[in-house]
Amino acid sequence: MLETVKIPGFNDLVDSDLKVDIVKIQGDVIVVSLKGLIDTYNTPFLSKKVNLLIGHGYEKIVFNLFGVTYMSSTGIGIFTTFLRQLRSLKGDFVLASVPEKVKDVFELIGFSSFFNFASDTAAGIAMLDDAAPDEEKSVFPKLFRCTCRKKLKVSRPGKFRCPQCRSIISVNEEGAVRKLS
Fold first, then answer.
1. What is the CA radius of gyration of the chain?
2. pTM of this prediction?
3. What gap in Å lies between CA 141 and CA 131, rounded to an integer?
4. What total of structural domains would you count in the chain?
5. Dist. CA 124–CA 95, nearest whole Å
6. Quick one: 92 and 162 in the same domain?
7. What's the CATH code of the domain at 17?
8. Is the torsion defined by CA of 44, 46, 52, 57 positive or negative?
9. How far, CA to CA in Å, does 15 sit from each of 36, 48, 63, 113?
10. SS3 of 80, please?
11. Is the bond into 141 cis (omega within 30 degrees of 0)?
């Protein structure tokens, strides 16, 4: 059931390049929808907004990035900070509906393996919701060999770079491996 969340001071913080909306979903999971750019100039704004949520006891967050048109390495850095904060509180977050060009930035920097990604908000909620039914056994961690014969292990679906031959490899949610370059 959708429930709008009211947090004192949250709507007082405004940025012309980034819109942040919140909706509480099922139990203690909250969805934060982002629209616009996330860069050096507005990461302090985003940090203040998320810290207000954490300060009000929200420790399971799904960030819906569907509306994000650009993210710099500073933007990725702020998500790393959020991850440390939430995990220190026994919480976590999921990045949902991530546009391909934004996900490519995570992968090029080598940070895609640190974060939980979901195809959409509902999948992100299921990943965080304690009441979600247990799914069938995951294929991850996935062990396989690159075309250069290097043994590789990945913990989740995504694009990865072989450290030996530098090929980009894609692993889908079913564990199927495909060389991209």
1. 17
2. 0.70
3. 24
4. 2
5. 7
6. no
7. 3.30.750.24
8. negative
9. 10, 11, 17, 30
10. helix
11. yes
